């Protein structure tokens, strides 16, 4: 074989090997660079997301927002309250928060590994403060969805002895006689409720008396407001069913600057918070749209560890 033919043969073989490698590289996807929590991935991929606080921070005082706007918050110790405030219906508390606590949202697994779960925060009077943002108002015309996973740690006897408001999220205030903002909370009757300020009053959507809050139980709470109706869903496995609570609430008034938003306490319009939450809170998300029933149901099932597309 001539030197010229040998050279052509070698070039041809090299091209075949390179081509095979190229095709093989295209057909084999690169492994993920960073693992992610599956439920958190579901939330961050949901249209309309404004802010998302997984509350899986393990050190420091920064409550990281995984949403598109970086509305990070700060963990603060609350006031030490040694006695029940009957006038305000606000419970006593040591004013603490504890990071890096056991996970309550089983869908928050690293790449689906049930042995690698995202931690959460235990609140007992401590809280997260988020500086006022117009996008968290929300501005008019108002439509929004608020989601949170919680495990309460007060007993029925606690609720009966010291009937208190216990705020999961508080963005409500009373300024110059005007009620504004919104909230997600437990009522003194030990029922879940959503609240919204409509100027002249706060309007509440409260679950039925047969749905008393149970200590140690996991709750996925979803508040929606479409401009005229405030709705609260609790563990919504089937959103074709009526919601747990719904009330007419036209005339919403956004909370004014500089009133912040609280997680784990209420009344951010006052010098010191009231209504401490006693329990675990994880994966608080706020959207500037009303999520449809299928999306809400998917979030609940995914957070419960059932992967649904």
Number of strands: 20
The figure for the number of domains is 2
Radius of gyration: 24 Å
| CATH architecture identity of the largest domain | Sandwich
Q: How widely separated are the two ends? A: 61 Å
Overall average residue pLDDT: 89
The fold-level CATH name of the largest domain is Jelly Rolls
CATH C-level name of the largest domain: Mainly Beta
Shape: globular
Q: Count of helices? A: 4
Order of helices and strands: HHEEEEEEEEEHEEEEEEEEEEEH
Helical content (DSSP H or I, runs of 4+): 10-25%
SSE blueprint and pairings:
Blueprint: H1 3-27, H2 38-44, E1 49-53, E2 62-63, E3 73-76, E4 96-101, E5 109-110, E6 113-117, E7 120-124, E8 127-130, E9 144-152, H3 156-161, E10 166-170, E11 173-175, E12 178-180, E13 182-186, E14 192-197, E15 202-206, E16 219-225, E17 229-234, E18 245-248, E19 261-263, E20 278-287, H4 293-303
Antiparallel strand pairs: 1-20, 2-3, 3-8, 4-7, 5-6, 7-20, 8-19, 9-16, 9-20, 10-13, 10-19, 11-12, 13-14, 14-15, 16-17, 17-18
